[in-house]
Design a protein that fits this description.
By secondary structure, the protein is mostly helical. The protein has 4 helices and no strands. Helix 2 packs antiparallel against helix 3 and helix 3 packs antiparallel against helix 4. The longest helix is centred in the middle third of the chain and has 28 residues. The chain is flat.
Length: 98
């Protein structure tokens, strides 16, 4: 079993459920926020999906890569600049999708 498979299997099922629940609620909330009328239309769902692409990317990279590999091992001097680069990349991805 390679390292990637081990790290994915070590994440408890509860954490995956929490992530799924959080992103589902976030998606529904923002879809309602982006809705221009009484009901949520397909364009509202598209805007919400595009908005979430950059956010989900940043959160997943930070949660599953940067925090366990750098911050948890006390390598703050490397974590902070990489986090700032990740944030900049997410902002640019969001601007690109919109």
């Amino acid at each position: 079993m390679n390292r990637k498979q081990r790290s994915t299997q070590q994440i408890p099922a509860r954490r995956w459920i929490e992530y799924l629940l959080f992103w589902s609620v976030s998606f529904l909330f923002l879809a309602r926020y982006f809705a221009s009328g009484e009901s949520i239309g397909s364009i509202d769902l598209i805007y919400t999906l595009l908005f979430h692409v950059s956010i989900v990317f940043g959160v997943v990279v930070n949660s599953f890569l940067l925090i366990p590999r750098l911050l948890a091992r006390g390598r703050t001097y490397l974590y902070i600049p990489l986090l700032l680069l990740l944030l900049e990349g997410c902002v640019r991805l969001n601007q690109f999708t919109f």
